[in-house]
C-alpha cells in the first residue's frame, strides 16, 4: 500500500465511525460507555417486586389498570431541576395511593441549579399534592447529568439535597444512577450508605451497579416496557425482595416516627407550563438506554406481587424554562383609611408564614 493510500485509511475509518454515530458525544443525561472497571451485582432475594416509574411523558395514567396488572410500586417525577415542573405529578401522586400502588417521588437533579431550591421544590409539590406518608417510599435524587459541574461540585450538591430532604421528610433518600455515569465521571463513595436504584437496561439476570455500591434495592431494567393503563412505553423496575420486604425497607428508612410531609396549599409555581421535549434525557427521566446493552423488549405484564427476572419500561423528559410566578404589586399611596388596610395586610402575612411553616417537619435526627 502506498504511503498516500495508507494515510487515507484512518480518515476513512473516522468518517465511517462518524456516519454510524460511534463518535457522537453522549447526549445530555445519557449514561455512556464506561472507561472504568464495572461490576455486576446480583440481588439478594429469590424474588423481586414489579414496579414502574413515570413522568408527564406517559400522559394520563389509569392507575386502577396499572394496579390490576400487578404493579406494586411506582416512582413519579416531580420536576427536572427547578426549570421544568412535571404537570402530571399531582394526578400520579394521588392516583397511585388511591389504587394501592406504593408510591415514591423522584427529581431529575441538575447540579448547576441551586440544590436547596430543588429540594424545597420537591417538598413543596409533595405537600401541595396531599403530603408524604410514613408508608410512602423515600424521595429519590436522579443523578445522571453533570450539568457542566466538576465531580466535587456535583457531590457537594447531592449532599446538600440529601441533607435537606432528610431534614424535611424524615426519610432516608434513594439515589438513582447508572454505573456508566457515576464511575466515568469520578463521583466518589461518600454516599454508598444510601439505598441504590441502579439503571442498567439488559435481559441479564443481574445488573451493573456503580462501584461504591455492593448491593441495590431497585433496578430499572428497561425503558420499553408495556403496562395496562399506560399508552406507549414505560420504564420497568424491580425491588429486590418481597412485598413484605418492600414495606420493611420503607419502615427502616423512616428516621423519625412521624416521618413525612404534611399536606399544604399549592406552591406559587404550581401553574408552571407543560413540559417541552428535550432530546437525550435518559434514565428515570427517559431517553436512550445505557450503551452497554440494548434495551430488551418488554416481557409479559406482572400478575403477582413477586416476579422473577424477565419483564421489561420509558419516560421522557422536558427541559424548558417555566414561567416565574410574579409576586410584584404596584406601589400605592397610603391615604385615608390606610392604617386599617396595613393592619389587615400584616395579619395576612403572618397567617401565610405560619401556614408555610406547617408544611414541613422538624429536622430529623440522623441514625
Describe this entry's structure for a reader:
The chain has 367 residues and is α/β, with parallel strands linked by helices. Strand 10 and strand 11 (234-240) form a beta hairpin. It contains eight helices and eleven strands. The protein is globular. The strands form two sheets. Strands 2-3-5-6-7-8-10-11 form an eight-stranded mixed β-barrel, surrounded by four helices. The protein has a two-stranded antiparallel sheet with strand order 1-9. The model is unreliable at 1-36, 270-274, 276-282 and 287-367 (pLDDT under 50). 28% of the residues lie in helices and 15% in strands.
- Poorly predicted runs: 1-36, 270-274, 276-282, 287-367
Order of strands, main sheet, comes to: 2-3-5-6-7-8-10-11
Strand content: 5-15%
Distance between the termini: 70 Å
Q: Report the biggest beta sheet as strand number plus sense, adding barrel if it closes.
A: 8 strands, mixed, barrel
Overall pLDDT confidence: 75
Number of helices: 8
Shape: globular
The helical percent reads 25-40%
Strand element count: 11
SS-derived structural category: alpha/beta
Instruction: Provide the gyration radius in Å.
Output: 23 Å
Order of helices and strands: HEEHEEHEHEHEHEEEEHH
List the helices and strands and how they pair.
Elements: H1 3-20, E1 39-40, E2 48-54, H2 63-68, E3 73-80, E4 84-85, H3 89-98, E5 102-108, H4 115-128, E6 140-142, H5 151-169, E7 174-177, H6 179-182, E8 196-199, E9 208-209, E10 218-225, E11 234-240, H7 243-253, H8 338-357
Parallel strand pairs: 2-3, 3-5, 5-6, 6-7, 7-8, 8-10
Antiparallel strand pairs: 1-9, 2-11, 3-4, 10-11
Helix pairs in contact: 4-5
Amino acid at each position: 500500500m502506498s504511503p498516500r493510500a495508507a494515510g487515507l485509511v484512518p480518515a476513512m475509518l473516522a468518517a465511517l465511525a462518524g456516519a454510524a454515530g460511534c463518535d457522537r458525544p453522549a447526549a445530555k443525561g445519557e449514561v455512556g460507555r464506561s472507561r472504568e472497571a464495572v461490576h455486576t451485582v446480583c440481588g439478594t432475594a429469590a424474588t423481586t417486586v414489579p414496579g414502574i416509574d413515570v413522568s408527564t411523558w406517559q400522559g394520563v395514567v389509569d392507575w386502577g389498570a396499572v394496579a390490576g396488572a400487578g404493579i406494586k410500586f411506582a416512582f413519579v417525577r416531580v420536576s427536572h431541576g427547578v426549570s421544568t415542573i412535571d404537570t402530571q405529578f399531582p394526578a400520579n401522586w394521588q392516583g397511585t395511593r388511591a389504587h394501592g400502588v406504593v408510591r415514591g417521588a423522584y427529581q431529575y437533579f441538575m447540579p448547576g441549579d441551586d440544590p436547596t431550591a430543588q429540594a424545597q421544590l420537591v417538598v413543596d409539590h409533595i405537600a401541595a399534592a396531599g403530603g408524604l406518608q410514613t408508608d410512602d417510599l423515600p424521595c429519590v435524587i436522579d443523578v445522571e447529568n453533570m450539568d457542566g459541574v466538576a465531580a466535587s461540585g456535583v457531590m457537594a450538591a447531592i449532599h446538600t439535597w440529601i441533607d435537606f430532604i432528610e431534614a424535611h421528610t424524615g426519610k432516608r433518600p434513594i439515589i438513582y444512577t447508572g454505573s456508566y455515569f457515576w464511575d466515568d465521571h469520578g463521583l466518589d463513595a461518600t454516599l454508598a450508605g444510601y439505598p441504590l436504584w441502579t439503571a442498567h437496561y439488559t435481559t441479564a439476570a443481574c445488573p451493573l451497579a456503580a462501584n461504591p455500591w455492593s448491593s441495590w434495592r431497585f433496578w430499572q431494567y428497561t425503558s420499553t416496557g408495556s403496562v395496562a393503563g399506560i399508552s406507549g412505553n414505560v420504564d420497568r423496575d424491580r425491588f429486590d425482595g418481597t412485598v413484605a420486604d418492600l414495606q420493611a425497607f420503607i419502615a427502616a428508612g423512616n428516621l423519625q416516627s412521624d416521618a413525612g410531609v404534611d399536606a399544604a396549599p399549592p406552591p406559587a409555581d404550581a401553574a408552571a407550563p407543560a413540559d417541552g421535549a428535550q432530546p437525550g434525557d435518559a434514565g428515570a427521566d427517559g431517553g436512550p438506554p445505557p450503551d452497554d446493552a440494548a434495551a430488551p423488549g418488554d416481557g409479559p405484564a406482572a400478575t403477582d406481587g413477586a416476579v422473577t427476572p424477565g419483564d421489561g419500561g420509558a419516560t421522557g423528559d422536558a427541559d424548558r424554562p417555566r414561567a416565574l410566578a410574579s409576586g410584584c404589586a404596584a406601589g400605592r399611596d397610603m391615604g385615608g383609611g390606610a392604617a386599617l388596610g396595613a393592619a389587615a395586610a400584616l395579619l395576612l402575612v403572618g397567617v401565610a408564614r405560619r401556614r408555610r411553616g406547617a408544611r414541613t417537619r422538624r429536622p430529623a435526627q440522623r441514625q
